[in-house]
């Protein structure tokens, strides 16, 4: 495909599609729909004889302007990329796009490609909502998939695979929404692996179902819409609710039509529905990113969801999809489903290997392997020839050919008016690369004034966040560059992503998590090496990253550049040649998923006898991939372990019953091992809970995932030495040895974790260290200050706070199921503070949007001590207080200061409006209580 997509212009040589834009017509249309101004375009020439970008401004004048802009210092300049070879007479970008469009049937040739076609029987409003978001028709493969027998009416399950960007989500959306709309008694669960994906999908689905009414249901001689309001089983509108860690939604199962969930929350919802006998309300479950079943840590939960639904033998339609499935038939056999596989890509992708300043077009993985082998051979000259060359840079920062290539490719893309996405191996690499690219971007004097204003707005939005403006983003955003990784807060990532999507930011530098976590396509994807840390990325992750190149509706074509070091050439070639891993069960003994699987089906009473368990096991994926004799042995051994651990009892008739500990563990969404660990911790707390301070409760609320937290031992020692007498007693009570902390602070050795007792102790130390951060958050220390104090990214601190909320609720459930009422009451007393990140006197204020922690305290100190006082305030009077609450006071010119104040005024108006609603609701509750 890459060879087809290359363009030959007058025999001058090979050129990329970005070159073609300049050479053919110098189109002003950008990837993001933002037109480039005349000022932006005149810095480059469309008539370069080499195909590279050329300044039409005299070199001396350019150098002079650069020096003036940089305060007299030479700014970094990206190297030119020049065509060096001639190639065969092939199609150019425009011709290629026309050919692909012509080869793909449209609605005029096939009416079934219209969602309004009667065969799909979709409501008119739903179809118009799709159209308003750019989906006017579907692809032939989508139509074939949807019209498979038994799929549209929910009678058959479905497993399918399509490349990233191929439109696979639309098929599931149609099947899911059609079921919920046509049968209002049924609900849907959509399962996604990451919180970011859940949040993104929530926004999308809410736009899709806006104004869509569910069909009425007959109840004797009346329909549901004719019944009195109190007898109607459901509201008429489609309600989409998100369930994920840190979510503020308080909706129950009965309040939902479509639940968009993380894997953990979906498993908990299914368990609750089975226990409460409301599982019959479930009509369809969509398992997105089905390949996640392979994930060592969370994959088995997705398998548990599906296997429990299969065991019910009720009319729950299961739809599984992924871009990286190889053994589709095995998965379809497991799920008793139809399967569909397509390789259709609506936007063609050109792929390139970049090595030692040379760019090689690669059409297939075989070609890549051949190219890499020849480049790495001992021959003085490789057999293959590059299509373009990157000039040597005179700047020390760009002496490394790989770095020079990444910066040059990114700047070239941005100058052409398109978006570039660079993948780096870590957070530090993201920030340093973003800084480097920004220094090589066009000077601000060459950027359109309107674009500068829009970038200033992005800076203003970032500055107005509670964490303030990141120093690196402060420097890079004005140049149209940003970075995106887990070290940023959710709000920062959202602002950066939105700015990129709108074309305000041209280049994003990201970690690999962005490839799977957010849908941000780019005209050009650049991989800065093929390693994430020390290890090579896997074939599935590589496909995810390269699949971000190009998107239908935004691009006519996409480009993927894999920049390599010589040492990695052959390994990368083998990686591209490698098949995607087979999706396998995570219920194997080494992954210990089978123990939780059996515990849950016994606890929710889905299988409580030997015969029922034997009927359940064939519903797992493991049954379809493992030797049956070995599987039977493993199941028997696991049941014995559950009995030995005190999680299950068995009588002489072979009936299994869950103990209180088992019920508490499942209700709290814990693994058996974590349930046993917490049971021991809480039993000790019952004997001597330290109530004259807060540290013990903070430790109890700290999630077990923090056992993976790296400890900065000198900081641990400093915080330990500052504990009051109550905190010291907690320290010793939970099992933290001050002497060990001192020794570790003076030693470079890691904490030993070889024996079970050492692993147990390490978990306690890591958990207590994380609890110190949680303590500061609940005592109104802002996230950015906690991050600075503990020398961790602020995004990590925010994530800790969000996960703590769900974990704390789980701890309260655990105590409730165990019958520990007094401990439950003590924990409940603190959970509101945990959610608010504030002390008790600020809890009412902290319910208001944008008023959290530090901001709430500033309001309190300035006389606004309750909902009523803010509800009665003028928005303009709150602006000075919001200014006081900002973490970083930046110097702004008069124009920027006015814009910043306007933004704070809008925020103040939202605060006043929300306070009014909360105050009225509070008054209503009090009136009803008096009655």
Automatic annotation (TrEMBL):
Keywords of the record: ATP-binding, Helicase, Hydrolase, Nucleotide-binding
Domain (Helicase C-terminal) ranges: 401-602
SUPFAM superfamilies named among the record's database cross-references: P-loop containing nucleoside triphosphate hydrolases, Sec63 N-terminal domain-like
Pfam families (alphabetical): DEAD, DUF7898, Helicase_C, HTH_61, POLQ_helical
Catalytic activity: ATP + H2O = ADP + phosphate + H(+)
GO MF annotation: an example: 3'-5' DNA helicase activity
Helicase ATP-binding domain residues: 149-343
PANTHER family on file: DNA POLYMERASE THETA, PUTATIVE (AFU_ORTHOLOGUE AFUA_1G05260)-RELATED, DNA-DIRECTED DNA POLYMERASE
Protein name stated in the entry: DNA-directed DNA polymerase theta
């Amino acid at each position: 495909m890459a060879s087809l997509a290359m363009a030959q212009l007058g025999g001058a040589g090979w050129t990329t599609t970005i070159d073609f834009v300049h050479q053919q017509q110098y189109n002003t249309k950008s990837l993001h729909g933002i037109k480039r101004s005349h000022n932006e375009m005149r810095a480059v020439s469309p008539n370069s004889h080499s195909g590279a970008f050329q300044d039409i401004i005299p070199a001396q004048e350019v150098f002079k302007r650069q020096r003036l802009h940089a305060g007299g210092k030479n700014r970094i300049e990206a190297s030119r990329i020049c065509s060096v070879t001639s190639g065969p007479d092939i199609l150019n970008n425009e011709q290629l796009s026309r050919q692909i469009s012509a080869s793909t049937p449209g609605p005029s040739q096939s009416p079934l490609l219209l969602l309004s076609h009667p065969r799909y029987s979709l409501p008119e409003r739903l179809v118009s909502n799709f159209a308003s978001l750019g989906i006017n028709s579907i692809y032939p493969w989508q139509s074939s998939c949807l019209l498979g027998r038994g799929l549209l009416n929910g009678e058959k399950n479905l497993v399918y695979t399509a490349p990233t960007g191929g439109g696979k989500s639309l098929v599931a959306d149609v099947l899911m929404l059609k079921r919920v709309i046509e049968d209002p008694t049924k609900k849907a669960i959509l399962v996604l692996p990451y919180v970011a994906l859940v949040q993104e999908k929530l926004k999308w689905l809410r736009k899709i179902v806006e104004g869509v009414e569910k069909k009425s249901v007959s109840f004797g001689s009346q329909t549901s819409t004719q019944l009195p309001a109190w007898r109607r089983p459901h509201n008429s509108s489609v309600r989409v609710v998100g369930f994920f860690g840190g979510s503020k939604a308080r909706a129950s199962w009965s309040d939902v039509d479509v639940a968009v969930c993380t894997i953990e929350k979906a498993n908990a919802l299914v368990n609750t529905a089975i226990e409460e006998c409301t599982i019959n309300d479930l009509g369809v479950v969509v398992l997105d990113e089905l390949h996640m079943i392979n994930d060592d840590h969370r994959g088995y939960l997705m398998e548990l969801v599906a296997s429990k639904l299969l065991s019910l033998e009720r009319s729950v339609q299961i739809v599984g999809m992924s871009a990286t499935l190889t053994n589709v038939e095995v998965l379809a056999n497991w799920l008793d489903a139809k399967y569909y596989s397509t390789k259709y890509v609506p936007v063609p992708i050109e792929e390139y290997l970049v090595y030692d300043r040379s760019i090689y077009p690669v059409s297939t993985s075989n070609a890549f392997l051949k190219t890499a082998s020849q480049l790495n051979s001992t021959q003085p000259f490789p057999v293959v020839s590059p299509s373009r060359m990157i000039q040597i840079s005179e700047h020390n920062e760009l002496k490394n050919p790989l770095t020079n290539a990444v910066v040059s490719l990114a700047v070239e893309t941005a100058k052409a008016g398109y978006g570039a996405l660079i993948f780096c191996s870590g957070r530090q690499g993201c920030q340093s690369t973003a800084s480097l690219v920004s220094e090589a971007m066009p000077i601000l004097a060459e950027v359109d004034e309107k674009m500068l204003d829009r970038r200033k707005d992005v800076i203003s939005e970032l500055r107005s966040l509670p964490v303030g403006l990141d120093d690196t983003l402060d420097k890079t955003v004005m140049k149209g560059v940003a970075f995106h990784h887990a070290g940023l807060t959710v709000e920062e990532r959202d602002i950066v992503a939105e700015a990129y999507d709108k074309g305000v930011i041209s280049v994003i530098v990201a970690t690999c998590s962005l490839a799977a976590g957010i849908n941000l396509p780019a005209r050009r994807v650049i991989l800065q090496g093929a390693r994430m840390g020390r290890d090579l990325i896997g074939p599935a992750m590589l496909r995810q990253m390269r699949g971000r190149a190009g998107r239908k509706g935004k691009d006519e074509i996409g480009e993927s550049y894999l920049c390599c070091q010589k040492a990695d050439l052959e390994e990368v070639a083998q990686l591209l040649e490698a098949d995607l891993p087979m999706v396998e069960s995570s219920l194997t003994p080494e992954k210990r998923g089978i123990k939780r699987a059996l515990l849950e089906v016994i606890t929710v009473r889905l299988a409580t006898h030997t015969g029922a368990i034997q009927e359940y096991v064939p519903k797992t994926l493991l049954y379809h991939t493992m030797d049956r004799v070995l599987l039977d042995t493993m199941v028997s051994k696991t049941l014995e372990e559950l009995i030995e651990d005190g999680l299950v009892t068995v009588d002489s008739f072979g009936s299994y019953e869950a103990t209180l500990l088992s019920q508490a563990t499942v209700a709290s969404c814990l693994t058996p091992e974590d349930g046993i660990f917490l049971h021991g911790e809480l039993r000790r707390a019952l004997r001597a809970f330290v109530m004259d301070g807060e540290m013990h409760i903070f430790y109890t609320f700290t999630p077990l995932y923090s056992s993976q937290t790296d400890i900065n031992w000198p900081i641990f020692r400093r915080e330990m030495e500052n504990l009051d007498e109550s905190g010291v007693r907690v320290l010793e009570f939970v099992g933290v040895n001050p002497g060990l902390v001192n020794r570790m602070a003076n030693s470079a050795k890691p904490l030993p974790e070889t024996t079970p007792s050492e692993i147990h102790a390490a978990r306690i130390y890591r958990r207590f260290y994380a609890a110190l951060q949680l303590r500061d958050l609940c005592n109104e220390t802002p996230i950015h200050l906690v991050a600075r104090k503990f020398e961790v990214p602020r995004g990590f601190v925010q994530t800790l706070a969000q996960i703590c909320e769900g974990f704390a609720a789980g701890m309260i459930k655990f105590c409730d199921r165990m019958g520990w009422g007094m401990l439950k009451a003590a924990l409940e007393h603190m959970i509101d503070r945990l959610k608010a990140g504030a002390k008790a006197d600020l809890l009412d204020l902290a319910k208001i949007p944008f008023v959290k922690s530090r901001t709430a305290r500033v309001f309190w100190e300035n006389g606004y001590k309750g909902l009523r006082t803010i509800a009665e305030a003028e928005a303009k009077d709150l602006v000075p207080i919001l200014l006081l609450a900002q973490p970083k006071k930046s110097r702004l010119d008069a124009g920027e200061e006015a814009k910043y104040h306007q933004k704070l005024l809008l925020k103040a108006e939202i605060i006043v409006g929300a306070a009014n609603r909360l105050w009225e609701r509070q008054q209503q509750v009090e009136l009803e209580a008096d009655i």
